[in-house]
């Protein structure tokens, strides 16, 4: 699949540059494509930041594209897997880091909000009309190296 948009194009170009740098020793290069990272302690411009806006009861903020499906991981889980990968010399090439499980943005927001004690208002969720409504990864290469990885998205409690 070709990159969609300037951000994806930049990521692809960076990967190509790394492949070129490591062309003599490709076994020393492992490119990890991390899928959607979602939790409370993320930047405001991310989905987690948008979900934080839903905790403001007097706000008229609405979450768009809530029916889109994504493959979520938490920052802590992502970091722990990246550390395992960094300590593995036999893993090379391009690897997806994903849960292989699709969750709608609506479901993710509902889970994060209700498990943290906030009201969930579906009226503040708008379906939207995005160009990429379904993005779920295939991490079978990663699992072949770490068959016991439990890549289940479990958001932390918001404090």
Written account of the structure:
The chain is α+β, with helices and mostly antiparallel strands and 159 residues long. Helices cover 33% and strands 9% of the residues. It has five helices and four strands. The strands form two sheets. A two-stranded parallel sheet has the order 1-3. Strands 2-4 form a two-stranded antiparallel ribbon. The chain starts with a helix and ends in a 14-residue tail after the last helix.
Oligomeric composition of the shown chains:
single chain
Give the end-to-end Cα distance, rounded to a whole number of Å: 40 Å
User: What spatial form do the alpha-carbon principal axes imply?
Assistant: globular
- SS-based class: alpha+beta
What's the order of the H and E elements? HEHEHEEHH
The average pLDDT score comes to 94
Query: Which percent range fits the helix content?
Result: 25-40%
Output the number of helix runs. Answer: 5
Strand content: 5-15%
Radius of gyration: 18 Å
How is this fold's topology laid out?
Elements: H1 5-21, E1 30-34, H2 47-53, E2 69-70, H3 75-86, E3 93-97, E4 103-104, H4 105-115, H5 140-145
Parallel strand pairs: 1-3
Antiparallel strand pairs: 2-4
Short description:
It contains five helices and four strands. By secondary structure, it is α+β, with helices and mostly antiparallel strands. A two-stranded parallel sheet has the order 1-3. A two-stranded antiparallel sheet has the order 2-4.
List keywords for this structure.
159 residues; alpha+beta; two-stranded antiparallel sheet; globular
């Amino acid at each position: 699949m070709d990159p969609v948009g300037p951000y994806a194009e930049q990521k692809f170009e960076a990967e190509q540059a790394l492949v070129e740098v490591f062309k003599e020793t490709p076994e020393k290069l492992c490119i990890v494509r991390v899928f959607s990272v979602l939790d409370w302690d993320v930047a405001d411009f991310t989905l987690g930041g948008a979900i934080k806006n839903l905790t403001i009861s007097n706000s008229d903020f609405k979450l768009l594209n809530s029916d889109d499906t994504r493959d979520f991981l938490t920052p802590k889980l992502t970091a722990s897997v990246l550390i395992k990968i960094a300590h593995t010399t036999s893993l090379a090439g391009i690897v997806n880091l994903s849960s292989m499980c699709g969750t709608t943005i609506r479901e993710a927001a509902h889970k994060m909000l209700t498990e943290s004690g906030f009201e969930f208002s579906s009226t503040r969720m708008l379906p939207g009309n995005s160009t990429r409504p379904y993005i779920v990864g295939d991490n079978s290469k990663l699992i072949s190296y770490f068959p016991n990885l439990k890549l289940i998205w479990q958001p932390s409690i918001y404090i």
